[in-house]
Amino acid sequence: MKTNTYQVSKKIKLSELSTLEVDNEAKSKLKKVRKKISKIQNKMYAHGKYSVLICLQGMDTSGKDSLIREVFKSFNTRGIHVHSFKQPSKLELKHDFLWRHYLVLPERGTFAVFNRTHYENVLVTRVHPEYILGENIPSIESIDQINDDFYDNRMAAIKNFEHHLTDNGTIVLKFFLNISKDEQKNRLIRRIELEEKNWKFSSADIKERALWDKYMFCYEDLLNKTSTENAPWFVIPSNDKPTARLRVAEIILDTLYKYTDIDEPELDQETKDDLENYKKLLENE
Predict the structure, then answer these.
(1) Using the 8-state DSSP alphabet, how is residue 261 labeled?
(2) The CATH number of the domain where 221 resides is what?
(3) Res 267 pLDDT > 70
(4) Phi then psi for 111, rounded to 5 degrees?
(5) Which residue range is the domain that position 267 belongs to?
(6) Which end of the chain has less Cβ packing within 10 Å, N or C?
């Protein structure tokens, strides 16, 4: 699988990218890939030098929750943490917009998955600029002051944030789950029709759907301006969920394979020399 097929390495137009890709063997392939990732995760946990930050973005119903469940199913739970970022709390609004994300970054040797990410701060707030006023930024008195330069500055701050992370051993991978508007409609209808899915439905989903074009503009802009060599964006066709999950898993595995120095630490020579003695002590208890 060629990672660069999905990576944003030059200017893209979302309207020109496919939202549908189908691999009929996706489910069986994913089982094999996620086992390989989990083995590397175990080595990383013992190695304790690298951490991994997986960032997931996508429109409502794009499949983020189920992707997390299926891709990381084989992981040792002590080595992975998932964080879903909702509307900022009163405490979070008293700090800068990146503060709450710093608090839950992965420790060395572990994975963190951000289900919605720091990019909400140049996405939802750009579609709804009135949200910025709740941050009480000294230089912002009215919505009129929240312009393209404001969001460009925020994106520059995000790039610096990610650059700092990668410089300190965090592997950053960012995925945009790209679904079509028609597919979103089908999934929303399914949430309404299936009783067990009702809890996922919100009237806000319909209101936000009406702003689809604005969201696509904002996504396209952030993808083009914040995909870097060390913290790349990948646009994943996501109308078919099993295939989307497989592609994300393959990209994670392909990336981790590049870190050839990840291995379990060796025991000190003295302990190695006494392993047989320790074994005999245990057997003779």
Answers:
(1) T
(2) 3.40.50.300
(3) yes
(4) -105, 145
(5) 3-283
(6) C
The tens digit of pLDDT for each residue in 139-194 reads 899 999 999 999 999 999 999 999 999 999 999 999 999 999 999 999 999 999 88
Supply the DSSP symbol for 7: B
Strand 80-84: give its sheet, edge to edge.
80-84, 111-115, 51-58, 170-178, 233-237
Helix ranges (DSSP H) in 119-147: 124-127
Residue type, 284: N
CA distance 114 to 54: 6
- Residue 169: which region, alpha, beta or left (left: phi > 0; alpha: psi -120 to 50)? left
Q: Could you tell me which of 86, 59, 5, 15 has the C-alpha nearest to residue 238? A: 59
Cα(108)–Cα(88) distance, rounded to whole angstroms? 26
Spell out the residues 6+ positions from residue 206 whose beta carbon is closer than 8 angstroms to its own. 188
Which residues, 6+ apart, have CB-to-CB distance to 171 below 8 Å?
Answer: 50, 51, 52, 53, 255, 256, 259
- For the chain, the straight-line distance linking the first and the last C-alpha, in angstroms and rounded, comes to 52
Place 2 in a pLDDT band, splitting at 50, 70 and 90.
Answer: low
Give the range among 127-131, 222-226, 259-263, 266-270 with minimum mean pLDDT. Answer: 266-270
Question: Into how many domains does the chain fold?
Answer: 1
The amino acid present at 82, given as its one-letter code, is V
- Over residues 83-96, mean pLDDT: 94
In residues, how long is the chain?
Answer: 285
Per the listing, tokens 């913290």 go with 231
Token duo for residue 254: 């392909």
> DSSP string of 196-240?
GGGGG--HHHHHHHTTHHHHHHHHHHHHHHH--SSS-EEEEE-SS
Query: In angstroms, what CA-CA distances link 101 with 16, 116, 117, 211?
Result: 32, 11, 8, 26
